[in-house]
Each structure stands twice: as C-alpha cells, then as structure tokens.
Write a structure and sequence with these properties.
The chain is 26% helix and 32% strand. With 850 residues, it is of the alpha+beta class. The strands form 13 sheets. The chain has a 9-stranded antiparallel beta sheet with strand order 1-7-8-9-10-19-14-13-12, with helices on one face. Strands 2, 3, 4, 5, 6, 11, 15 and 18 form an 8-stranded antiparallel beta sheet that branches. Strands 20-36-37-38-45-41-42 form a 7-stranded antiparallel beta sheet. The protein starts with 13 loop residues before the first helix and ends with a strand.
Length: 850
C-alpha cells in the first residue's frame, strides 16, 4: 500500500517571528531567496533584464538576446587541462538562482568552475563570470554560433563576424553599420573563427579566456548589442567589463527594494512563502524595454533555437491584463500603468485592443499584414477590467479621465460583437480563450461572455471616476441585465454545469470546463449553480496534483497533450483557486494555489511554466518555462483568493476576508496599500478566538471577515478593548464573522472571541516528475442542518492512505469511514475499484449540536 503523508512545518517560534516582523520599520523579506539543486541538463535556465536576456538550459548551452536583436546561439564551454578538452556539459553538477543572477557549478577531478550569468536590469547586455579553482593549469574555451538577427518576423539580411584584437572581442555587424554586437573578454584570445569556403565551412567561433596555472582566478565575458552603431556597443561593452560587480549588486538591490515596497507575507507554509517571493520577482522580470516600441509586459521566455522567436518574449494584451491584476494586488501600480499605457498605445481605430505585438513589429507591417496583432476578442474587455482594477486600487483617477476616450472606444468595439441576445461573440471577431482544436468552432464562450459582463461593471466604475455619472448609471443598469443573461444562457439544468460555450447555432456546448471559474473570479455566477459546477471541477478528472485540466479527462474531446483540449495551465489553476475561494471552496482552492506555488520551486527554478501534460507531471515539450502570467497565478490566488484582500484607494478601505488553512495559527501581511495609507496585519488564532494586530499609517476603513466552521459560535468582538458590532454571514460550507470598523493611525488589536471552531486541511505535493496524479481531492463537503455532522467525499489513488490535519479535534465524537490518530484524520482510499480514482465517503460526528 502506498503511504502518502504530509509532515507540517513546525510552528516553533513562529509567533515571535511574526511579532518581530510586525514591529519592524519595514516589511520583513526573505534574506536569502537562493534556490539550488542538482542540475537537470534539459531544464530551462536563464538570466533576464529589461533590455537583454540569456536563455538556455542547465547543461550550460545558451543563446543571447539584446532586444530586439538575437546575438548568438549554442554557446557552450570546454575546459582545457592536462592535454584534454573536456566538454563542460558533462561536468555540470549543481545550479542555483538568485533574482539578480543564475549559477552553474562544473566540477572535474582537480578543478571547479562556477559560471554566473548576470543581466543587469537596465543595461543592454549581459556578463558571464567564471570563478576558477584548479590544481593544474586550466583554460576555458567558449564556443558559439553567430545568429545576429532581429526578432521574428523581421530580419537584417546579411550579417558578419570579425575578431577585434584591440577589444579582445568578436564584433558582429551588418552592411548598414546600424546594428552591432560585441562579445569578448579582457583576457580573451581568438581560438576559432567561423568561415565558409568552396571546400569546407564552420559556423562555430570560439574565444579562450587565458590559462589559470593553479589556485583561484576570475574570468569574465561581456555581451552587448546596439541599434545605434558600433560606438554605443563598445561603450556598453567597456562599462559591463569595468563595472560588472557593481551592476550585479545594483540588480540585487533593485529586486530587494521591489520586494520591500510591494505586499510582503510571513507564512507558516515555507514553500508557499518562498514561491510568493519568487513569483513577484518572476513577474517583474516580464517588464521589457524595446528601443522602438517602448516598455511593457512580455508573455514569457523560452529558447528560440535556430529560429528568431524566444518563447513568448514579445508583448501580449491579455497576458498583460491578467498579470496586471496580480501587480495591483501586490501594490505594484507603476508597472500596471506601464503595461496599460503600452498596450493601449496600439489600440485599433475601431477600439479593438491588441492581442500580441512582436519585438520586431517596427520593421514590418505588423498591424496590417500579419494576422496576430488583433487575433483575440478577449483582450478588449480585459483592458477595461484591468484599467478599473488599477484605478480603484491605486487611486489614480486621473488615468480614468486621461484614458476615457480609449476605454469608450474599446466598449464600442465590444458592443459591435454582441449577438441578438446581447452576448459578445468570438466567432468572426477573434478568439476567446480557445484559439484552436476540437473545442471550436463556437459563437461565444462562457469565458468571453463573462468578461463582457464584467467589463460593463468595470466601465461603470471608470465612468464615475471620469466624472460621467450619467454614463456610469446606464452602464450599471446594463450590467444588472447582463449578469443574469450570462447565467441563464450557459446554464444546463440537465448536467448541473455551465456550458463551455454556445456553438454557431446558439446551442449549448455541454463540456464542463475550468474556464467557468473566470466569471466566478468576478462573482458573476449564481451561488447554487456555481456550487454544482465547482463540485464537478473538484473531481480528479478535472483537478490534478499539478493543476487544472481545461476539460475533464473523461471528455471525448480530451487530449492530454492538447494545448486547448486537455493540458494543465497554471493560469487555469489560478483562475480556479480565486473562483473557489470566492465561492467558499477553500479546500480545492488551497490545493490549486499550492500546486502553482510548488511549480516555482521545481522546473525552471524561480519560475512557473506555461503548460503541462494533462496526464503526467511534466511540462509540454512546447511550454514556455518562464511564463509571466503563470507566476502571477501564485500572487492572485494568495492575495485575492486565500486572503480575500480588496482595496479601495478613494475610500481608504481594505476588505480582508481570509479562508485560512486549518493548520495555520499565525501569519503576517505587510504593506497593504489603500491610497496613501499603508497597513500591516499580524494574525493569530487559538481555540478561544482570533486576534488581528493592525498597524496603519493613517485612519482607514477595514472590513475583516474570516471564514469559520459552521459550528463556530462567535461570542464577542473588540477593538483595543472596546466592544464592536459584528455580523454572521452564512453559506453551505462555512460562515464568516464580519466586523466593519474604522482603524485609527498607529497600532490596534482586534479580538474575536469564539468557541467550537473546527477545520481540516491537507497539504499536497507534486508527484515525481513524469508521474500521474497521486494526491487527494475533496469532491464534496456538506453539513447537517443542526451542525452536528459534516459529510465529506474524497477521491485519491487506489489503496492510498492520506493524513489530514485537524483543528480542534476535541470537537469530534466519532468518524464514519476514517480514523482519528494523533490530531490527524486518516483516510484510506479503497484499493479494489474499477475507477481510476476511487472515492471514500466519511462522516464526522461532533460531540454536541450547536
């Protein structure tokens, strides 16, 4: 029998850590974000900045980009020692990453070489340093293939490569002498130069960095490029060589400062804590500056190989907007504004918002001759939604007034896509979420229609900010009509699910899909219908250990490797988590949140991949390993989902509605922004109640409504010792005690006294790479009317045993279908079953009814 057990991180001294963090002058951040492991030669490996990037794998093979130029590919090393030329990839031992740099350690019998890739945040180039330690003379030889071209779909035509002995560097050029690149080392000598003759040819060029006779020595290679000629490239090259140590330190400070000024967390789940910090780093690494187009958010990074397409390292509309919701949640309003300004700059005359903008767009007729620029229909409503989220949370109402014409044009385009019912269409106007495959063709997806409805609500809010209250009221009325229309048009009473879409004949496509959680994110779906839908989505045919499939594995259209017909996307998983939290499904919500978090600590270290197989825990072979909106889906499920944080800058108001995992007794949140007010929270719970310490930089409005068990009884609430009013908000799965109050400047303590609270939690993990799903799924959860029994149904691997943590086990009188051992609920899944994931029903009986 397989045994699956969660060993919880000890809570020793955590309360002291929280209090120390709370009392400090700034948000406490991880002092060491370094991630290390034994190398996986196939795994993506990179270093990125706003103007350049090194992309490769953990074997040490790299390509270099200085946007919008690709410089070289197939960069690799040889170590020359004792009469041998040793390929470096055979000696890779460990890799590690920090926000500012990435490191590969090579070890031979008598030497070690530590290679550090660093791309300074604001520089048009990169530096590779080598810390050599050897007992015998050793020399590093670096080889590469020139690939000096503009990013797809542009091209330079003929380019060339020469050795410049004075610079100790290769010079890359083209006939106009406008675009240039330099790759070299102050200790370097020419080893090999590419050539082509009538008799033979070689594409490889190589540089030797000079021998280290014995002991320790540092070698360095600098890489730069310019779109303004050789002189600028040479200046940057010399700057990188002279100042690389200071530049790396500046980059480290850039990321440290970024973490300090955005929302910081202190969590008892150390893995989720580290993943959250890395997710913030990974997302801001998507901010890229192109000298022709400007600064905006790209979609992701991957090697281009022999092509000119580095993954999705160009600018995308809907990617930017989904990422912007995470940036707003963490308080990085400046980057959101940059992204909104960038995408809206290329809005089409009819109001449609761009889908994608290549970094080579300036060199071709991208917006007229290529089909990609305005391919999607969903970017347009997402633009309106993201703009409103930014204005509401940042308080930048001037942006609403400045962009009103653009926003109104976007709405006019959206209206032009409405069908006879008033639903925004995909067919004929651009794809919604699904771009191809067996789920098409459809007229409109629930995803698209949900975004269309939410755009009305968002534009109503923006109209108010823009001092157009008559327009605001009309849009609010339109939204009030549109929301029930969406619920009615896509709901199937027979299946108890929402349809994926309406087909071209306006018939429901009854294919339950995780895409339904997008309107749930915004609270658009009816509670009872959403409950039924989420029950289906929580089953093992939809949810895996590594995230959510787009459709059920039992569906006839399902294909585990299908990009839009079966694969698992961290994006979907994040949508599901936020939607599940909004509809009080905290158990699967945390499972999905944690799956995304663990991706940041596995795979390409520090990053979250784009898409994985639906059947096996591994990325698809075409996945972009450092996908920006995937990292954003660690941030949003934590801040918007688990913590239920919403801020209104104009009202100086924070809504804090956490669904705290049962085994979390304390955590802290720092630097929550509500306009010009900053708030810190330190939370603790015990059997007799909850305390929330608050430090606010100014008087502010707070709505605190933590989730409790339906059994819990709230006795009282007080702020700084003074009684305050509270309300109880109930639903079928939990209840919330709601406290609304004004928080004074300085430190305050809110205490909620209660009894009989109860909870269970399960902390899953990723399975071995390449394995199928092994974890536990909570399929259904219901309570008796009197609160004296909770009925749960679990699905898991046949014959597996799972242990769940119980909060307040003294409440339990007996359990049917499971055991209680040492504060653990032990669930055994049947081993004899025809089902791939058998189910086990249990009933927890409590000592006394409420």
């Amino acid at each position: 029998m397989q045994r699956i057990r969660f060993h919880r991180q000890p809570d020793i001294a955590f309360a002291l850590i929280v209090l120390l963090a709370f009392c400090s002058s700034g948000s406490a951040q991880s002092s060491d974000l370094e991630l290390s492991r034994t190398a996986r030669p196939w795994e993506f490996f990179c270093a990125t900045g706003m103007r350049a990037g090194l992309f490769g794998n953990e074997s040490g093979n790299l390509e270099a980009w200085v946007y919008p130029l690709k410089v070289f590919r197939n960069f690799h090393l040889h170590f020359l020692t004792e009469g041998r030329s040793l390929p470096a990839e055979s000696l890779v031992r460990t890799v590690s990453v920090r926000p500012e740099s990435s490191v590969i350690v090579y070890t031979g019998d008598t030497f070690s070489v530590t290679e550090t890739l660093a791309v300074p945040v604001h520089e048009a180039g990169a530096v590779i340093t080598f810390e050599v330690e050897t007992a015998h003379p050793l020399e590093i030889e670096a080889e590469f293939e020139r690939d000096f071209q503009l990013e797809w779909p542009a091209a330079l035509g003929g380019t060339y490569l020469n050795w410049d002995a004075g610079l100790h560097a290769f010079y890359f050029g083209e006939e106009q002498k406008k675009y240039s690149a330099i790759v070299g080392s102050p200790s370097g000598d020419l080893s090999e130069l590419e050539y082509q003759t009538n008799y033979s040819a070689s594409q490889e060029s190589a540089i030797r960095l000079g021998a280290t006779l014995k002991g320790k020595e540092t070698k360095v290679i600098a890489i730069t490029a310019s779109v303004n000629g050789r002189a600028e490239a040479e200046n940057t090259y010399k700057h990188l060589l002279n100042d690389y140590a200071a530049l790396e330190k500046d980059s480290a400070k850039y990321y440290s400062d970024y973490l300090a000024r955005t929302v910081g967390l202190e969590l008892p789940d150390a893995q989720v804590q580290q993943a959250y910090d890395w997710a913030r780093v990974s997302v801001i690494q998507g901010l890229v500056t192109n000298p022709y187009l400007g600064s905006g958010l790209i979609a992701g990074y991957r090697t281009s190989g022999t092509s000119q397409r580095p993954g999705f390292a160009w600018f995308f509309g809907r990617d930017s907007f989904w990422t912007a919701l995470a940036l707003d949640a963490e308080g990085d309003f400046a980057t959101t504004r940059t992204a909104l300004e960038f995408i809206s700059k290329y809005q089409r005359a009819d109001g449609k918002i761009p889908h994608e903008i290549s970094q080579g767009a300036s060199f071709v007729n991208w917006f007229t001759d290529f089909p990609y620029a305005y391919a999607s229909a969903d970017a347009t409503p997402l633009y309106i939604i993201a703009a409103n989220d930014y204005v509401t949370e940042s308080g930048d109402t001037a942006f609403a007034r400045k962009k009103w014409e653009s926003l109104w044009k976007a709405y006019q385009f959206l209206r032009s896509t409405y069908d006879a019912q008033g639903l925004p269409q995909n067919f004929g106007f651009g794809h919604g979420w699904v771009e191809g495959g067996p789920l098409l063709p459809v007229k409109t997806e629930l995803y698209q229609s949900g975004l269309g409805a939410q755009a009305l609500s968002a534009l109503s809010s923006l109209a108010h900010f823009a001092d157009k209250d008559d327009v605001s009221k009309q849009l609010a009325d339109d939204f009030a009509r549109q929301k029930p229309l969406v619920n009615q048009a896509f709901w199937s009473q027979k299946s108890g699910t929402y349809a994926f879409a309406l087909d071209t004949n306006s018939q429901k496509v009854i294919e339950p899909s995780v895409l339904a959680t997008v309107p749930m994110w915004f609270g658009l779906l009816d509670q009872d219908k959403a409950d039924s839908m989420l029950t289906q989505l929580s089953g093992p045919d939809h949810e895996t250990d590594w995230g959510m499939r787009i459709i059920s594995a039992r569906a006839s259209r399902y294909d585990a490797g299908g990009y839009h017909s079966g694969a698992v996307w961290p994006l979907f998983t994040g949508w599901a988590s936020v939607g599940e939290y909004r509809y009080h499904r905290a158990f699967p919500a945390y499972s999905n949140l944690r799956a995304n978090a663990l991706h940041a600590l596995d795979g390409s270290l520090g990053h979250v991949t784009e898409v994985l197989s639906g059947d096996y825990y591994q990325p698809l072979s075409t996945s972009s390993p450092h996908q920006i909106w995937s990292a954003a889906m660690v941030i949003s499920p934590l801040l918007r989902g688990l913590f239920g944080l919403e801020t209104d800058a104009a009202q100086h108001k924070v809504v804090f509605s956490p669904h705290v995992p049962a085994d979390w007794t304390s955590f802290a949140i720092h630097n929550v922004r509500a306009g010009d007010t900053s708030l810190d929270f330190a939370y603790r719970k015990a059997l007799d109640g909850i305390s929330l310490q608050i430090e606010s930089s100014a008087a502010s409005s707070l709505e605190f409504s933590p989730a409790l068990s339906p059994r819990a009884q709230v006795i009282s609430a007080d702020l700084n010792g003074n009684r305050v009013a509270f309300q109880i908000s109930k639903n079928d799965i939990d209840e919330h005690v709601v406290v609304r109050l004004t928080i004074p400047k300085g430190k305050s303590t809110l205490r909620i006294k209660l009894q009989n609270d109860f909870g269970i939690s399960y902390v899953g993990s990723l399975p071995p790479l390449g394995s199928s799903s092994l974890g536990l799924r909570l399929v259904s959860d219901s309570w008796s009317a009197s609160g004296d029994a909770e009925s749960l149904e679990f699905a898991g691997a046949a014959g597996a045993r799972y242990e769940l943590t119980v909060w307040n086990p003294g409440q339990i009188a007996s359990v049917d279908g499971a055991e209680i051992r040492n504060r653990k609920l032990v669930v055994n899944i049947p081993s004899s079953s025809s089902e791939a994931n058998p189910r086990q029903k249990i009933v927890i009986h409590f000592a006394a009814a409420r």
